[in-house]
Amino acid sequence: MTSPSPTIAPYRSQLPPTREGFGRLLRAEWSKFWTVRVWVLVLVVAAAVTVLISQLAASGSSVSSGGAPVTLAPDGAQVTDSFRFVHQPLAGDGSVTVRVSDLKGLGGRDPEPWAKAGIIIKQSTEAGSQYAALMVTPDHGVRMQWNFTQDKAGSGASGDPRWLRLTRTSTQLTGYESADGSDWTKVGSVTLPDLAGTTQAGLFVATPLHNNLRRSFGGTSETAGSTNITASFDHLALSGGARGAAWTSTDVGAPAPNAPAPNASDPNASGAPQSGPAHPEPGTTRVSASGVYTVAGTGDIAPDETGPDVIQMSFQGVFVAVVFMVALGALFITTEYKRGMIRTTFTATPRRTRVLTAKALVIGGVTFAVSLVATAITFPLAQSTMRSNGFKPPVYPDLSLLDTTALRAIVGSAALLSLVAVLALAAGAILRNSAAAITVVVVLVILPQILAFALPLPVGQWLLKLTPAAAFAVQQGATYYPQVDHNCLPESGCYPLAPWNGLAVLCAYVVVALALAAWRLRRRDV
């Protein structure tokens, strides 16, 4: 009888138990990226392309230092400050009250939507000096505006005669409106801390240029024509002015060479207020026997939005670098599918969503870090080049890396490149084919930019709102104000969405693509 064989105890490792850690997974994915020299090379080339193409674009951009003089606001911003002004000195506190009616365009045509007629208290008749104004507009009702960039809406009344009152108490100016001259409603109040003791107060009219835009597949033609507006003012009353002082008419912002001396008689009507410096299209002021002032003029009081966006012009290389980032993001996962290595990856880490998350963090982090260095180098180099080509103060600001708008464009451009790489990674996980993933993402990000230049403007703007190409809005440095009509042309670097809103559209695409990729990884075997 044989004795039973002894029972052998199962082997137990003497090492402490471990568990799958996300940190280890991140290190593994980082090692995969770093050890593939081609991927590192593509990343370096993308950074170099960002800098070099941006420099070439900056070198090819120039502006003449000559031309018409520019008007600068007290804060240094370039503005338009040209209008017909009927005024008296206002020493200290006081107010000006008037009823405004009959806004008409030149030749009986409809006035521009942002034409203005109303009352204003201004530091002086010098263009660019600070002010506060209360006005009636044809399409935007009663508005209170001050220092060119600030705008506050009053009532929506535009057609009927409207009473306006603007008061000054120390450095505070307050606007009121009324339908009948008895019951007044406050529109707004503003403090102008550096307002002089004696200011100029009175009536004004102004109207922006009429813009004509023709757009076709062959290109875009944009022209601006001079316009004129007339308005009637009655029940004019000024408290705080010099007793017995006469009303004087001045074309603020008009060039003065070979002009008649200020306060020469206005040839438009006998007994009318006096005229100031000459203007290519001088305004007119007529006063009836009953004291009704009919004032006509051109020009505008608003921010000047006609200049190029020197911040956006500094990042032209980012558009080309997108292609490299798309290829890098797609290859980071499709290469494993092509070589069959993805089975090993999922065997080591069965939780596939964790693998996708780790890959997204690695490719997103690496591309953001390198892109941030590239865009931080790109911006000051491009700015220096453009300054040497005429884009210099005072017309164009001297911007540094730490200026808020510039810093947003630098960080935002790096985030754009990083998000595009993650989007390509998700597309690669969904399609499992390098060429298909790269093509899809390039079509989504690059093609809308190209089509927007050729398609009708409304269609092009919708493309730049609804596709990932909206993210390029983060490079915008120009500020567009709602009280100024402008044509937002893609070829001029203007995007229909605000900078961070445009980047948010790309973020939404990335989130959806990653969710689809995670679903597909769980549902389909490798």
Helices and strands, in N-to-C order? HHEEEEEEEEEEEEEEEEEEHHHHHHHH
In whole angstroms, the N-to-C terminal distance is 55 Å
User: Mean pLDDT score, rounded?
Assistant: 86
Radius of gyration: 32 Å
- Overall helicity: 25-40%
Oligomeric state as shown:
single chain
- The poorly predicted ranges are 10-19, 257-279
Structure description:
The chain is an alpha+beta fold. The protein has two domains: 22-63 and 308-523, no CATH class; 71-303, Exo-inulinase, domain 1 (Jelly Rolls). The protein is 36% helix and 24% strand. The chain is built from ten helices and 18 strands. It has helices spanning 22-35, 37-59, 317-339, 341-348, 352-388, 404-431, 434-445, 447-454, 457-466, 499-523, and strands spanning 71-72, 78-81, 83-105, 116-122, 131-137, 141-146, 150-153, 162-169, 172-178, 185-191, 198-206, 210-216, 219-225, 229-241, 248-252, 284-287, 293-297, 301-303. The strands form three sheets. Strands 3, 4, 5, 6, 7, 8, 9, 10, 11, 14, 15, 16 and 17 form a 13-stranded antiparallel β-sheet that branches. Strand 8 (162-169) and strand 9 form a beta hairpin. Helix 6 packs antiparallel against helix 7. The chain is elongated and about 95 Å long. 40% of the residues are buried.
Tags for this model:
526 residues, alpha+beta, single chain, Jelly Rolls, 13-stranded antiparallel β-sheet
Sum this structure up briefly:
This protein has 526 residues and is of the alpha+beta class. The chain has helices at 22-35, 37-59, 317-339, 341-348, 352-388, 404-431, 434-445, 447-454, 457-466, 499-523; strands at 71-72, 78-81, 83-105, 116-122, 131-137, 141-146, 150-153, 162-169, 172-178, 185-191, 198-206, 210-216, 219-225, 229-241, 248-252, 284-287, 293-297, 301-303.
